Amino acid sequence: MRTTGLVLIGVLLAGAYRPTRSQSPSPPPSAVDVTGADLLATLKQAPADGVMDQQIRVVDIGKYNVAVGVLHRAAHARQTAISHTQVTEVYHIIDGSGMFVTGGDMTDPTPSPSDGTTVEILVGPSTNGTGIRGGQSRHVVPGDVVVIPPGVAHWFSAVDSDMN
Predict the structure, then answer these.
(1) Which residues are within 8 A (CB) of 98 and not within 5 positions of it... i.e. 6 or more apart?
(2) Which of 37, 42, 85, 156 could form a disulfide with 79 if both were Cys (CB 3.0 to 4.6 A apart)?
């Protein structure tokens, strides 16, 4: 059975929320690798018919953190909208396709619980919603890259086929 998911090539945690640790005054002296094997191992943990967000590496680069993670989006799973207060995300579609909406107004916005995984571990303060009204829709396919600045709502309004 083929493992599927959406690879989040860089969750650039600009001013990333890390409540239990302080930032270093300077960036690390060397590069940090994330291998294809790291990505595949993380994807193997994804629920086949569900949704998963999982960081692989978070690197303290001084004033900010930069993280690389994997998002899994199954075609039949319920998709919700989200925006992040302090995080820029970069989505790189490896496999699969769907309609991706950014901007506009989130429907039924609700803040993520401050003590939940989304805020404490993944992406910091965020707002969730059931969808987006008036955003920019685009059909994403393998090779596409979308950069999502902080505060911009984003949502997979339809997933044609499971995505890597």
Answers:
(1) 73, 75, 139, 140, 156, 157, 158, 159, 160, 161, 163
(2) 156
